[in-house]
Amino acid sequence: MNEELTGRLRAAAEAHQPDRARILARVERGMSGAPAGPRESSGTRPWPRVALASLATAGILAVGGFAVASIVQSPPARPEIPATPAAPSAPGTPHPTPSTPTTGGPTAPDRSPSTTPSTSPSPAASGGAGSTRPGSAHVQDGPLWSAGSLDASSNTYWAQSNITLKTTQPLTALTMELRITQTGGVQSTGSWRTLPADDFTVTVQHEDGAVVYRWTLKPGRTVPAGQHVFAGQYNHAAGEREAKHDGYRVDANGPRGALSVWGGFTPTR
Fold first, then answer.
1. Are the beta carbons of 184 and 205 closer than 8 angstroms?
2. For the segment 115-138, what is each residue's pLDDT rounded down to a tens digit?
3. How many domains does the chain fold into?
4. For residue 209, is it left (φ>0), alpha (ψ between -120 and 50) or beta?
5. Is the residue at 86 inside a domain?
6. Are 160 and 243 members of one domain?
């Protein structure tokens, strides 16, 4: 039954108050007004009829009481509400993971080699060209920068000394001097430069125990800004030759006036 019918029955049951005396009176009136039947024998008494009426009345009261008690005590039926299923997680949805604690500590210093070329000179030649004292070097002067090195093609009988010259401004005068100390069997086999050969006067001389190469810029010529290389080639006595006493010097003129740089060469390994 639905909730409305259940509510009405419950209200009627609670309001009903059975009147026992009234019911018994009605039963007795019914019994007294009943048509008289054939007279029973004197040995028969009417108690069974009264007993049946009493039992019927008691049965009616009992049934009514049970019905009222059932309606009053039984709680109303609750409509069943279907449980809402939990929404499944979307496939492929990542689940958060706890982050790993970061271990604190000082950051290691960056020990990567510097990409900026060092302007520190190689060990200067003792008594070499342009040296004011043994071991001195001056590889940069304003817009002019220089470096000396032994060519990789050098061997136990022959060698080539390179001078790299960089300038950020044009030069109107230039004298390059390369001094190769006589260590035994040193003899020039030639020279070259990356600038035009017609722009320079080249000489090779033996002076004070050294073979000296000189490149002199001719009047009216100009050395443009950029990087240029000068090289002297020579034979020497068999074996590993020490270049620590060799040296170079550059004297030039530019927009800011006179410029000079000098230095040495990395020893042969």
1. no
2. 333 333 333 333 344 443 445 799
3. 2
4. left
5. no
6. yes
